[in-house]
From TrEMBL:
<keyword id="KW-0808">Transferase</keyword>
<keyword id="KW-0547">Nucleotide-binding</keyword>
<dbReference type="GO" id="GO:0005524">
    <property type="term" value="F:ATP binding"/>
</dbReference>
<dbReference type="Pfam" id="PF02518">
    <property type="entry name" value="HATPase_c"/>
</dbReference>
<dbReference type="InterPro" id="IPR003661">
    <property type="entry name" value="HisK_dim/P_dom"/>
</dbReference>
<keyword id="KW-0597">Phosphoprotein</keyword>
<feature type="domain" description="Histidine kinase">
    <location>
        <begin position="231"/>
        <end position="447"/>
    </location>
</feature>
<dbReference type="InterPro" id="IPR050736">
    <property type="entry name" value="Sensor_HK_Regulatory"/>
</dbReference>
<keyword id="KW-0175">Coiled coil</keyword>
<protein>
    <recommendedName>
        <fullName>histidine kinase</fullName>
        <ecNumber>2.7.13.3</ecNumber>
    </recommendedName>
</protein>
<dbReference type="InterPro" id="IPR005467">
    <property type="entry name" value="His_kinase_dom"/>
</dbReference>
<dbReference type="InterPro" id="IPR004358">
    <property type="entry name" value="Sig_transdc_His_kin-like_C"/>
</dbReference>
<dbReference type="InterPro" id="IPR003594">
    <property type="entry name" value="HATPase_dom"/>
</dbReference>
<keyword id="KW-0902">Two-component regulatory system</keyword>
<feature type="coiled-coil region">
    <location>
        <begin position="148"/>
        <end position="185"/>
    </location>
</feature>
<keyword id="KW-0418">Kinase</keyword>
<dbReference type="Pfam" id="PF00512">
    <property type="entry name" value="HisKA"/>
</dbReference>
């Protein structure tokens, strides 16, 4: 890329030329579009560099160049024919570097050169070729003033600077006054908030004490409920079992023959007693789970054996030709868990699915997901609305309008299955929608 044509050149011979180069630097800065403060910075930096360069005792050449491409920049090069002066001149220009964007001092074949650059403000007019020619023509007509003229200009600039400093000092005093008032307001607000926070803390402490008391009462009520369920279950199991035994004895062929109406009534008694015994057993299991009396016995479980056992024991329940009972071959062969509790969970879910599926299929599968194991029990039943997905895990709750195809529901199976899944270190959730069936997912840790 060719070097840009200089805007103007000047040679420094004597100390008086320092005033002239300062005037010229300010004029060039004004012409390319710098504001007044930046004009003063450029002029001051240039006069200081010129003074230092003349101090070595030889003439110095000053060259002004404007770069219109990229970021518009004014560049000034001040050089003398004596090489090796950078080491002496550089330290003297450290403060000057703060007045411009870049300042470099270097030695070359032609001597020592000081290069300065400052970017033009965004408000400056574009440096088109036509405007550059106008700037060169205007600078060629520039007539340097006397040192007294430059001193007058500097005095005016100093007066303006002092006025700005005084205005800034007044603004600072005003801001300090406002800050003090703000601080007083902040302190007052702080004390008010501290008092309110202290009062709130007292209320929170009292609330926590009340919550602790309620928690103790709730635990006591839960323990009392569990004891009640366990005791009632134990007490009811014996007479219910006795009623079932008596109905079997009355219906035994070796006993005295019964009339058809008597046999029907005894069958009703036996069916009701069987339903009651199922409810009693469910209550007892749920009470044990809530009381934390079920401790898992961990072992390596062969899931192929577990799935085969479920397939064999539940096949007699899935006797309707409208429903296919499918137990997939487990893709995960082994799992470390409690086999008895796992079988209870899966049997409970499968029994529930068979009970509420009128047609289609009930399917059991297992897969590995993100380091865990997921068992899925899916059916093609009526489905469950999303707003009831959590309620079905509450004791004794049944979906409104749901009717079991076979058997009767107690509303205790799903809460019991979820508690057992929690004891095994996992969880139980449901994915279902009305008319699309349901999928119950048991997720357990792989190890």
């Amino acid at each position: 890329m060719s070097k840009a044509e200089p805007l103007i050149r000047m040679r420094l011979h004597v100390e008086q030329d320092v005033f002239s180069v300062r005037q010229l630097g300010r004029e060039v800065a004004r012409a390319v579009g710098f504001e007044q403060q930046d004009q003063t910075r450029v002029a001051t930096a240039l006069s200081e560099v010129g003074r230092v360069m003349l101090a070595v005792g030889v003439d110095a050449d000053v060259e002004f160049t404007a770069e219109p491409n990229g970021v518009p920049t004014l560049r000034v090069a001040v050089g003398n024919p004596l090489p090796g002066g950078a080491a002496d001149i550089g330290p003297q220009l450290v403060q000057v570097g703060r007045l411009v964007d870049t300042l470099e001092v270097g030695d070359g074949e032609t001597g020592t050169v000081v290069r300065m650059a400052r970017r033009l403000p965004t408000s400056a007019p574009p440096l088109t070729p036509g405007r550059m020619d106008e700037i060169r023509a205007g600078l060629a007509e520039h007539i340097p003033g006397t040192p007294l003229d430059e001193l007058s200009v500097q005095n005016q600039q100093l007066i303006v600077a002092l006025d700005e400093v005084r205005a800034q000092r007044d603004d600072l005093a005003r801001l300090n006054t406002e800050l003090e008032e703000t601080n007083r307001g902040v302190m007052a607000l702080y004390h008010q908030l501290s008092d309110e926070l202290e009062e709130t803390n007292r209320g929170v402490v009292a609330l926590y004490a009340d919550l602790d008391e309620k928690s103790v009462q709730l635990r006591a009520a839960s323990e009392a409920k569990s004891r009640f369920l366990a005791n009632v279950s134990h007490e009811l199991r014996a007479p219910v079992t006795a009623v079932i035994g008596l109905t079997r004895l009355l219906l035994d062929p070796s006993s005295e023959p019964l009339g058809s109406e008597q046999r029907r009534q005894v069958d009703l008694i036996g069916g009701s007693a069987g339903d009651l015994l199922t409810l009693v057993n469910d209550l007892l299991d749920l009470a044990k789970a809530e009381a934390g009396r079920i401790e898992p016995e961990w072992s390596d479980v062969d899931l192929r054996v577990v799935f085969g056992q479920l397939r064999g024991t539940l096949r007699p329940l899935a006797t309707r030709p409208e429903v296919d009972f499918v137990v997939e071959d487990p893709g995960v062969p082994r799992l470390r868990t409690d086999e008895v509790l796992l079988v209870r969970v899966l049997r409970n879910l499968l029994t529930n699915a068979i009970k509420f599926t009128a047609q289609g299929e009930v399917r059991l599968g297992v897969r590995a997901v993100d380091g865990d194991i997921e068992f899925t029990v899916s059916d093609t039943g009526t489905g469950i609305p999303a707003e009831l997905h959590e309620r079905i895990f509450e004791e004794f709750y049944q979906v409104p309008g749901s009717v079991a195809v076979t058997g009767k529901g107690t509303g205790l199976g799903l809460p019991y299955a979820r508690r057992l899944a929690g004891i095994l270190g996992g969880g139980l959730r449901v994915d279902s929608a009305p008319g699309e069936g349901s999928t119950f997912i048991v997720r357990l840790p792989a190890s």
